[in-house]
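Task 17 of the worksheet. Students: predict the tertiary structure of the chain below and write it out as structure tokens. Keep your answer in the requested format; marks are given for formatting as well as content.
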Amino acid sequence: MEKQYLILDKVQGPLIILSDVEGISYDEIVEIEVDGKEKRKGKVVQLYEDKAIIQVFESTTGISLHNTVVSFKGKPLQISLSTDILGREFNGVGEAIDGGGEIYSSKKYNVNGMPMNPVARKYPRNFIQTGISSIDCLTTLIRGQKLPIFSGNGMPHNELAAQIVKQAKISGNSDEKFAVVFAAMGIKHDDADFFRKSFEEAGVLERVVMYTNLADDPIVERIIAPRCALTAAEYLAFEEGMHILVIMTDMTNYCEALRELSSSREEVPSRKGYPGYLYSDLASLYERAGMMNGRKGSITQIPILTMPNDDITHPIPDLTGYITEGQIVLSRSIYGRDIYPPVNILPSLSRLMKDGIGEGFTRGDHAEVSNQVFSSYSHVQDVIALAQVIGEDELSPIDKTYMKFGREFENKFLNQGFDENRDIEETLDLAWDMLSILDKSELDRISPDLLNKYYRSDV
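Model answer:
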């Protein structure tokens, strides 16, 4: 028989506190009835002796100590899933908000997921083509990888996320099913409208599942939203055999919500007020990417976060960098030169790209071209620093050629339109156009055979 509790100890922000509870478990779902009519949901977030602390998913407005009935459901938050979720939009706790009705399924799935056995993990192979040259050539996204985008306030990360959703496709066998799960946390209404409109106009809405938590939605939903999205991704990947790309924006909003809830629980803060378990909490999300032996599907993650004050050493990007396999860094100075997407390739890297590029994956020259572009563009930065001291007119002829290479590389290779979709062949050919500005003797990272085959003397 379900036990009900009629008197609360305390209401504090999004939390309610109960005493004299028994037989309760961590993460258990709670139903809260206010004034005998309005029902809200919550979950147990902390247990101490006979006390339970409950996070309320909706607002706690109207809840008093004596007008509330609390019932414990004996199970964690679960959502119904089927292939009907494709093309649909849900809120942060998995409830449909697009007017299409509920999802009916005989199976319900725990949003906290099931840990993937490390022994069952398959090493990521094959690349996902985003159609964006700076990513495909230099920080290649590999199927099963987690590759975050580090951005800043006011930068075009939303446009970049929308472009990736529109253009992303898997390489190789075109019969394999591909879909995108998009999780938005704490975004503004106009940003949510922008994403919906972009997906609809691009005709990709039928292969996108959206989990949207808006800025004025409860912060507790912000904690649940990525877990609902990843649960949907796991279902589509490992039960339906699909290749899933999960895009989560903005992880900074997620971490701010985590800090606010931690403060409400009166937990001891760590760096910059974030809870001490921030690392393990982020890992519980990021580590839900990958491929499994014996299963067809895969989950690839692109978390997007805005670095507070553009500080890459801030706890959020810092800890994210430890857990994930590289990063794509957007630069405010490059953005100031009217270049989109403003990817700063030097601090960007993809640790798994070496195993998913080259002959049989992209093209035989990919690895060497990528190394040469990094080397040459790095030298451009040294030449720019020198020019600021002695003036560009005093540079040597070779240094002036590097300056030309740097300008052409940024304006023609990095810079591309929001609707411009370049395949990997076009991207690599464009990289050769840029490298051919330099003298052949300067291209010391490329083998003579590839130089003879691809170098363009007419550039």
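Marker's comment: The chain has a mean pLDDT of 90. The chain is about 35% helix and 20% strand.
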